[in-house]
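Why should sequence recovery work at all? Because a backbone constrains its sequence more than one might expect. Tight turns favour small or flexible residues, buried strands favour hydrophobic ones, and helices have their own preferences. The token representation captures these environments compactly. In the example below, the structure is given first.
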């Protein structure tokens, strides 16, 4: 039963810091120096942003990952704990360095460079079997920066399902653009697949979203495809609908907006809400996250998100 579980969510994934330069005066060029109007050094990584935000939305969250025994690793684990995330299952390895992402924010978009560090050596072997018995739902993300986890995904998802968990995954972008992942072995054990549209097209080698749906027909997995300011699409079997994004007048940056969308959706799903309600709450959570820098500062609680987004207008 759900009430016998210690946690609502087990988050498995990458951990690094974000070094964010915002409001750069022009597009960076090799051999030139540019000016940024603001600098933020904060906990990064897609999966950690998801974990913090869904914890702030009111769920009990445990994180499983790996960092170096260094100042960046301490910043990450301290930040998780400060946001209510349990870190007992995070490995601290003194022979490895914690990863870092440098983010250049230009207008409403961004450029990123990541050093993976400790996350590259993390695999299913680092997670005790008992961890899968503690939570109701498993979420993972940024698969292509975690080769060990990527290779173990079918087994990990199967193990989660065997322990009564529902599952979700957001692959994020492949920096090598090879898109090599065994989706056919993962989908039978995956409840929610949550990439953005460009990622989906690359993952299934499709020229259009219609072509992608043809290739993915007959699956029981629910697809939640994010399109930035174009909103998001929910699809399962023959049923499909779209929700628009919200216009945010006090926009700061889009870092973690997709992860915040995921957090809003999974929070609503675990609360027993309808797919339509889940998607609207996901869009509102994403909008709230863009009101502050870094992915987590824009969200304080579920009530905070609903209050901040109450009067926002949708993008038509």
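From this structural description, the recovered sequence reads:
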């Amino acid at each position: 039963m759900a009430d016998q579980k210690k946690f609502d969510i087990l988050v498995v994934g990458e951990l690094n810091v974000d070094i964010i330069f915002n409001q750069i005066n022009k597009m960076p060029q090799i051999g030139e120096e540019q000016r940024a109007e603001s600098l933020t050094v904060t906990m990064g990584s897609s999966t950690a942003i998801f974990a913090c935000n869904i914890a702030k939305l009111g769920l009990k969250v445990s994180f499983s990952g790996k960092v170096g025994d260094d100042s960046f690793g301490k910043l990450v684990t301290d930040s998780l704990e400060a946001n209510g995330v349990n870190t007992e299952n995070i490995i601290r390895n003194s022979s490895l360095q914690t990863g870092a992402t440098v983010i250049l924010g230009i207008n409403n978009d961004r450029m990123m460079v990541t050093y993976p560090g400790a996350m590259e050596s993390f695999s299913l072997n680092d997670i005790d079997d008992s961890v899968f018995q503690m939570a109701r739902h498993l979420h993972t993300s940024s698969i292509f920066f975690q080769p060990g986890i990527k290779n173990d995904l079918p087994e990990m998802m199967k193990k989660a399902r065997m322990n009564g968990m529902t599952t979700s995954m957001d692959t994020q972008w492949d920096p090598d653009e090879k898109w090599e992942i065994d989706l056919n072995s993962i989908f039978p054990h995956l409840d929610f697949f949550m990439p953005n549209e460009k990622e989906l097209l690359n993952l299934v080698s499709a020229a259009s979203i219609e072509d992608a749906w043809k290739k993915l027909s007959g699956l029981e997995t629910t697809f939640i495809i994010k399109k930035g300011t174009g909103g998001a699409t929910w699809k399962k079997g023959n049923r499909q609908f779209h929700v628009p994004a919200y216009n945010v007048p006090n926009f700061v940056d889009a870092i973690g907006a997709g992860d915040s969308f995921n957090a809003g959706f999974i929070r609503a799903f675990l609360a027993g809400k309808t797919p339509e309600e889940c998607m609207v709450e996901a869009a509102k959570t994403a909008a709230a996250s863009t009101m502050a820098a870094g992915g987590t500062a824009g969200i304080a609680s579920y009530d905070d998100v609903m209050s901040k987004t109450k009067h926002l207008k949708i993008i038509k």
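A few observations help interpret the result. The chain has a mean pLDDT of 94.
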